[in-house]
């Protein structure tokens, strides 16, 4: 605690603002609060240290020292692994602090990778990077639950994503689908739920709320199969699912920036729907019913999951609390699959849908007095108009007028809400007085 | 959960963590100790892997076989049956998806193409790990040796047993490629 703070406390006692007992209590409160803070910081530095040492060991071993014999190299490969295991075992057995568990777990995570890679080097085992990552992740997943380690969860998610991207996107002429990614995520999710139940407002939950949807969003493309257009359907459904997860009652009190599911779901829905406001994408997808089975199954599974999540939200919160973003994916499915024979109607309907999404965001923003959501809605409407600027035969005058109207809309809605807010603040002040 | 259960769980996981790399070693050592050694004519090039360090990729002369069998498609795993030719190098005698009843060792390879009654494949032992500084020099050394049109001077030593194969060394001018690169440096 700073001496300045102590001096302030003494002044307050001297001026008889607070009693010496109260001053002591305040002092004690901040002293214990600071202890918590330093432990957290210590954990972060512990993990960072272990991460650097672990990566350093991998890099040093990757040099592949020719002067060493096969036996020396093998012993060297197992040494970090054994050290990591002893440290981790020690922190479990002696019930050490989370700092110990996080740091030793992080070191062990990298030691396992280093060991397998060095054995592969020594014996010239040709296995692919994908299979190497799978072995590594499988050997580390149980550590999440044994150590209750946040760092290992993060590494497992990041490396699972890397595996899926490597196998699904980066392999030349490879049509493999990284199904094991599902298994890895299923193994991680119970831990996420445990942390969620225990401390929803923790920073770890914020990180996981962003990293989980980001990972799924990155990887989904590897499950598309051979029909690109179905990929769009898949992504729009995924964004619907993410948005609905973000709307679950458990996240209700969470601030928007801590709710990655909601933000990614909302932004993703709008951006991918914007693609379908163009006519060319519908013209190109005339062959869209040449579905390959895998893509269709994945899309259907996603749709079912999204629908179940939405039903749960309706059951818990009631139908009145549902907003347009939550049902946008269902509307899209209806338009995409039922109206595929009609020429212009689907394009018009999607344009209306995106416009309605913009308006609904403006309304949510106005109801909640939230300028960010209000302007987000205005931005959706503006982008939609800019998109139409490019592909319609509207005259320049009409386009110009539209832009002026939207510009005025931005200015007026913000101004009106500011005024309303000031009025309410004033009323509250008057009441207090 | 009680500490004793967590510790027990950790011990089991730790044993698995030790078992997997140990089993990898055992599999390779078994082939090296009791497998038959073959020489494969090859050409080394130099890429690298972010985790496992520098290696040279080997492009083998043996990479295709004429066959009337048309069941192969890209990505298939096939058994490539080999024997030694008159000069002591490995030659393909047959390829098949199923195990054949012939007296020859086989290697499991991946089909990369099929055309004109010919199936092209990739042999599994195409990576030879080298010390960081030597991988590129190894590629240069190959081109230097090969300039004299003496391709038989470069070959890979591979041990084969029951379909498993282990790349033991790459030989240039009768010398291990590691020694050869070192000598070139001096």
Automatic annotation (TrEMBL), chain A:
| InterPro entries the record matches | DUF2157 (IPR018677)
Membrane-spanning ranges:
41-62, 74-93, 105-123, 129-147, 152-172, 178-195, 207-226, 232-250, 262-282, 294-315, 322-342, 348-366, 373-390, 396-418
Q: Please, which domain of life does this record's source organism belong to?
A: Bacteria
Entry keyword annotation includes Disulfide bond: no
- Residue ranges of every copy of the DUF2157 domain listed in the record: 12-152
Q: Does the keyword Transmembrane helix apply?
A: yes
Keywords assigned: Membrane, Transmembrane, Transmembrane helix
Tell me what this protein is called.
Answer: DUF2157 domain-containing protein
């Amino acid at each position: 605690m700073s001496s300045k703070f102590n001096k302030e406390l003494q002044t307050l006692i001297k001026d008889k603002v607070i009693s010496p007992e109260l001053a002591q209590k305040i002092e004690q409160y901040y002293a214990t609060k600071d202890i918590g803070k330093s432990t957290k910081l210590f954990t972060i530095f512990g993990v960072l240290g272990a991460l650097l040492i672990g990566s350093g060991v991998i890099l040093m071993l990757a040099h592949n020292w020719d002067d060493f014999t096969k036996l020396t190299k093998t012993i060297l490969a197992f040494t970090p692994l054994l050290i990591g295991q002893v440290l981790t075992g020690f922190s479990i057995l002696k019930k050490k602090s989370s700092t110990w568990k996080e740091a030793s777990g992080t070191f062990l995570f990298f030691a396992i990778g280093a060991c397998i890679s060095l054995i592969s080097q020594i014996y010239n085992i040709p296995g692919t990077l994908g299979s190497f990552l799978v072995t590594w992740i499988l050997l580390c997943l149980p550590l999440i639950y044994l150590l209750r380690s946040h760092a290992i969860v993060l590494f497992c998610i990041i490396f699972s994503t890397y595996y899926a991207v490597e196998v699904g996107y980066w392999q030349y002429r490879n049509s493999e689908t990284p199904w094991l990614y599902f298994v890895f995520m299923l193994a991680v999710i119970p831990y996420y739920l445990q942390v969620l139940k225990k401390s929803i407002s923790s920073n770890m939950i914020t990180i996981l709320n962003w990293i989980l949807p980001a990972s799924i969003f990155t990887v989904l493309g590897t499950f598309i199969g051979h029909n690109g257009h179905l990929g769009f359907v898949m992504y729009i459904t995924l964004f619907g699912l993410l948005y609905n997860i973000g709307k679950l009652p458990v996240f209700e009190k969470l601030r928007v920036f801590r709710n990655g599911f909601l933000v990614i779901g909302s932004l993703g829905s709008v951006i991918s729907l914007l693609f379908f406001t163009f006519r060319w994408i519908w013209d190109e997808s005339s062959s869209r019913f040449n579905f390959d089975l895998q893509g269709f199954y994945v899309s259907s599974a996603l749709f079912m999951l999204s629908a179940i999540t939405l039903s749960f939200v309706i059951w818990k919160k009631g139908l009145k609390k549902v907003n347009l973003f939550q049902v946008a994916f269902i509307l899209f499915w209806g338009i995409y699959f039922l109206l595929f024979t009609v020429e212009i109607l689907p394009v018009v309907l999607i344009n209306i849908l995106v416009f309605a999404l913009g308006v609904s965001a403006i309304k949510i923003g106005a109801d909640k007095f939230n300028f960010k959501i209000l302007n987000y809605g205005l931005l959706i409407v503006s982008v939609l108009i800019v998109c139409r600027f490019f592909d319609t035969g509207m005259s320049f005058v009409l386009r110009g007028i539209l832009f002026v109207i939207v510009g005025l809309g931005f200015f007026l809605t913000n101004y009106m809400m500011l005024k309303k807010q000031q009025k309410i603040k004033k009323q509250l002040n008057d009441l207090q007085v | 959960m009680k500490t004793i259960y967590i510790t027990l769980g950790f011990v089991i996981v730790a044993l698995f963590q030790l078992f997997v790399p140990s089993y990898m070693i055992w599999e390779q050592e078994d082939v090296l100790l009791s497998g038959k050694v073959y020489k494969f004519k090859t050409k080394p090039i130099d890429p690298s892997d972010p985790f496992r360090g520098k290696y040279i990729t080997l492009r083998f002369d043996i990479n295709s076989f004429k066959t009337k069998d048309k069941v192969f498609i890209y990505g298939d795993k096939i058994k490539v049956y080999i024997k030694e030719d008159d000069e002591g190098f490995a030659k393909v005698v047959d390829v098949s998806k199923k195990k054949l009843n012939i007296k020859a060792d086989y290697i499991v390879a991946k089909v990369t193409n099929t055309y004109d009654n010919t199936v092209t494949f990739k042999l599994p032992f195409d990576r030879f790990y080298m010390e960081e500084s030597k991988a590129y020099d190894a590629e240069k050394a190959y081109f230097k040796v090969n300039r004299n049109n003496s391709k038989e001077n470069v070959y890979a030593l591979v041990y084969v047993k029951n379909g498993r194969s282990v790349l033991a060394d790459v030989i240039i001018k009768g010398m291990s490629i590691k020694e050869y690169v070192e000598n070139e440096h001096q």
